[in-house]
TrEMBL record:
The lineage of its organism: Bacteria, Pseudomonadati, Bacteroidota, Flavobacteriia, Flavobacteriales. Residues 2-78 form the 2Fe-2S ferredoxin-type domain. GO terms for molecular function: 2 iron, 2 sulfur cluster binding; metal ion binding; oxidoreductase activity. It holds the Pfam family Fer2_2. It comes from Allotamlana fucoidanivorans. The keyword Transcription does not apply. This is (2Fe-2S)-binding protein.
Length: 150
């Protein structure tokens, strides 16, 4: 089985995996970074969102072979203690219900706010619309992104 060198949360990892293994499964099964969730596996739900070179990307669609030489950040690496402004806003607004989609939501929101630190409501809605929440916490999610932007 081939080996791949990955930079994840500012640490280097060497993993063995089939060349077409999605990054999602390398994160979860080989590196035990289980904060990144599996929802659909086909790029439709956003549960698996991580940052790749600072941009939000769905780790179920990125092959491990494509992830070499990229800077990958997972929810575990967004802050050392859960104190990233988006995480703080999530707590302040008390967003989660079942919580399953939240790491993907937070990774999408944090990448978006880096590019647009003063977004309008419609820009927030547009940025977050691809992240599905089966509890339909969309109003709370949008409110938390607004709070994080302040
Ligand atoms: Fe990747 Fe749904 S698991 S988008």
């Amino acid at each position: 089985m081939p080996t791949f060198n990955l930079n994840i949360n500012k640490k280097n990892y060497t993993v063995e995996a089939d060349i077409d293994t999605p990054l999602l499964w390398v994160l979860r099964d080989k590196i035990n970074l289980v904060g990144t969730k599996f929802g659909c596996g086909i790029g439709q739900c956003g549960a698996c969102t991580v940052h790749v070179n600072g941009n939000a990307m769905r780790s179920c669609l990125l092959l491990v072979s494509q992830a070499e030489s990229m800077d990958i950040t997972t929810i575990e690496g967004l802050s050392e203690d859960g104190s990233h402004p988006v995480q703080e806003a999530w707590k302040e607004v008390d967003v989660p219900q079942c919580g399953y989609c939240q790491s993907g939501q937070i990774m999408t929101a944090s990448a978006f706010l880096k590019q647009n630190s003063n977004p309008s409501k419609s820009q927030i809605r547009n940025a977050m619309h691809g992240n599905i929440c089966r509890c339909a916490s969309y109003n709370s999610i949008e409110k938390a992104v607004e709070v994080a932007a302040k």
